[in-house]
Design a protein that fits this description.
globular; membrane
Length: 210
């Protein structure tokens, strides 16, 4: 996962986390707005101002523990022409934005590699910042696509399969927060997520950097 208490790494992580959190929530808000829901706009979420999207506690927890949260975008599917389809589009907009950020920043790293700027310390530091930002957003992409309550992936699953019909999912929604905290604190969450993060990250690195 993202957890790394090295002070330099944590410092270099801040821009990537800010960018990832802000653009993730902005993507949700913009997509919902484009599909006819006035709620995000009425709440001032159609903006790139970090103050509108960042939950300071969630940001600090993410920086230290490797999982966290931003201010969730409130939406109202009743305004959508096709509620289930459009709610899926809104749900995946955030994670796909994180994936796009990762692609862009690995692309910028490739440009640095081709320009031979990495021969000096400044170039190496910039490259480190770019790679860390890309890696963080891969983590955010995978984390948010978990088919678990509170995450975007669960909204996709619930819209596709009408999960309210099944007792298992009802119980999962009821106790989801407790289960997630238990998994995170015990370290199991990292063990579950890390292999997926590595697969996605390695795929992008091999695709773009090599």
């Amino acid at each position: 996962m993202l957890r790394n208490l090295d002070p330099i790494y944590m410092l270099l992580s801040i821009p990537g986390l800010l960018l990832g959190f802000v653009l993730h929530e902005f993507a949700h808000a913009k997509m919902s707005d484009a599909l006819g829901d006035p709620t995000p706009r009425s709440q001032g979420r159609i903006t790139l101002d970090p103050r509108s999207h960042i939950d300071i506690i969630g940001f600090i927890v993410m920086l230290i523990a490797g999982f966290g949260w931003a201010k969730p975008v409130m939406t109202n599917p009743r305004f959508y022409k096709k509620p289930r389809r459009d709610d899926i589009l809104v749900s995946i907009a955030g994670p796909l934005m994180n994936l796009l950020i990762a692609v862009v920043f690995y692309g910028l790293t490739k440009i640095l590699l081709l320009s031979n700027i990495l021969n000096n310390n400044i170039g190496k530091n910039v490259a480190s910042l770019l790679v860390i930002t890309a890696g963080i957003n891969v983590v955010l992409f995978v984390l948010n696509m978990i088919p678990f309550p509170m995450f975007d992936g669960y909204h996709v699953i619930s819209n596709l399969f009408n999960t309210w019909r099944y007792r298992f999912f009802n119980l999962l929604e009821q106790y989801g927060m407790f289960i997630f905290i238990l998994l995170a604190v015990s370290g199991m969450l990292g063990k579950i997520i890390s292999p997926v993060v590595n697969v996605v990250n390695n795929f992008l690195i091999n695709l773009i950097l090599y």
